[in-house]
Write a structure and sequence with these properties.
The chain is mostly helical. The chain has one domain. The mean pLDDT is about 90.
């Protein structure tokens, strides 16, 4: 690239592409963060609900065997809900990983095509 104007255009294009790439990365980060916070709030809600249920069970039951059976049922329900939330978190991490991988591959492809085009232009007689 022997033309200074073409060099400046190439630099400008790299800058614009870099800005767009960073903006799209920020969007992925924000979306992932929002989903993770939502999952954390759901898990917190599960624990609060279990605590309230625990107090209710403790106050209602005077028979130790009935109390024990209620505790077992509550523990089972809590563990099932937490296991489901854990699976949701794994799915979210997998989805986010795919988005990051796609973003990176797209950026690399764009960069390679721009560099290849600039190199070919520079090698023209």
């Amino acid at each position: 690239m022997k033309d200074p104007k073409a060099n400046l255009e190439l630099i400008k294009e790299f800058g614009i592409n870099g800005y767009e790439n960073i903006r799209s990365l920020a969007e992925i980060n924000l979306r992932t963060w929002e989903q993770m916070v939502e999952r954390q709030m759901d898990a917190f809600s599960i624990f609060v609900d279990a605590g309230i249920e625990q107090l209710s069970i403790s106050g209602q039951s005077s028979d130790p065997k009935e109390l024990f059976n209620s505790q077992i049922a509550l523990s089972k329900t809590l563990s099932e809900k937490l296991a489901n939330k854990g699976r949701d978190a794994v799915n979210l991490a997998t989805q986010a990983g795919s988005e990051y991988r796609s973003w990176l591959e797209n950026g690399i492809d764009t960069f390679n095509s721009k560099v290849t085009a600039a190199a070919e232009e520079a090698l023209k007689p």
